[in-house]
Design brief:
The structure is a homodimer.
Chain A (H helix, E strand, L loop, with lengths): L18 H15 L6 H13 L3 E2 H7 L7 H14 L2 E5 L5 E5 L8 E4 L4 E4 L2 H20 L3 E12 L4 H6 L4 E3 L2
Parallel strand pairs in A: 4-6
Antiparallel strand pairs in A: 1-3, 2-3, 4-5, 5-7
Helix pairs in contact in A: 1-2, 3-4
Chain B binds a DNA duplex through helix 2 and helix 4.
Amino acid sequence: MISATQTNHPLNETDQDSPSAIALQVACNRLKSAGLRITQPRIAILEALIKRSLPASIEQIHAELSATVCDLVTVYRCLAAFEELGLVRRCFFHNGASLYQIALADSPSYHIVDKTSNSVGELDPELAQELSEAMRKIEQKLIARGYTDVSHLVEFFGRAPKHPIDRMQNGALMAEIR
Amino acid sequence: MISATQTNHPLNETDQDSPSAIALQVACNRLKSAGLRITQPRIAILEALIKRSLPASIEQIHAELSATVCDLVTVYRCLAAFEELGLVRRCFFHNGASLYQIALADSPSYHIVDKTSNSVGELDPELAQELSEAMRKIEQKLIARGYTDVSHLVEFFGRAPKHPIDRMQNGALMAEIR
DNA sequence: AAGTTATTGTAAACCATTTAGATCTGTTTA
DNA sequence: TAAACAGATCTAAATGGTTTACAATAACTT
């Protein structure tokens, strides 16, 4: 609310019109309509996820919360709840640990985990798109056979080229995981 | 055993010519040429894997070994070693636990985990083939970009139809995990 | 058959994640 | 607006799958 121009609010730290703020609103609405409460920790966690956009580990998310916000266990619980709502998407680190990524409306993204640098990058959109098709197709067949509650998990692993330049050419965002 | 002919080896309990026996030979040769020793536990584990052919959990494999064969930890170690040799393929249960499947020459198989019955089935060959293509294609692009040691992980989850008949129509083998 | 060295057994450590029970806090209601 | 009902969180401890340390054992080598 307020707003109009991002600009004339001197001490406007919450920036009500920014995409992030809107994303947060959307997320909170989803929580509300699912009958879940809008709590301090949940807001903070959502903000962290939205800010990062790339997958993050539970520890990492917890670490980003201003110390006093909440316990690690709460992060676990919130993310489990968010996942059930489809608010976040879960993927996996090469050691098997869970990573979570905000999932607001955008099409599913797939990741490549760099085992050398411990970072996670996104597959570029065209590849992701194509893969997404293939997966959907298979899921459809499974559903046609009577399977319900169908989901899938896809992860790529590898060692990234050493030269940052090459990595840039990927056009893929990368984020280090702890 | 004592099979009606299969050949004429009266008390031939090890059935030297059976596909399983041959598979075991192949596996042992691979161990040997990798400089690993052919031990009691390893043979027993390989036999169990070959007999089952579908993915099995570590506990499950260990349970199938005649009590005195070896420790659970040894099963862990052997499977890790086998995986490194490419002798087994690893996939995942919906709780994140590892499952291992023998992998002798056959093309990669993909699985659907039934969250209701706790069983794992194989995707039928055509679907698997198709998916395998799609994955290879993406991996190729990653390699072209300089990634090395590239691998992937794909798993489907769902709840299988209640009627066994439907399940049979899948034409897919199913095996319960624990 | 003896020696070497990988492999195994045992016990304990690890780590991510989950649970139990008490307490707190959003949200609803009066 | 205050009381009251869940739902959510905190703390601590338990789980469960997997790994490690180190001494004992058993494959392979000669």
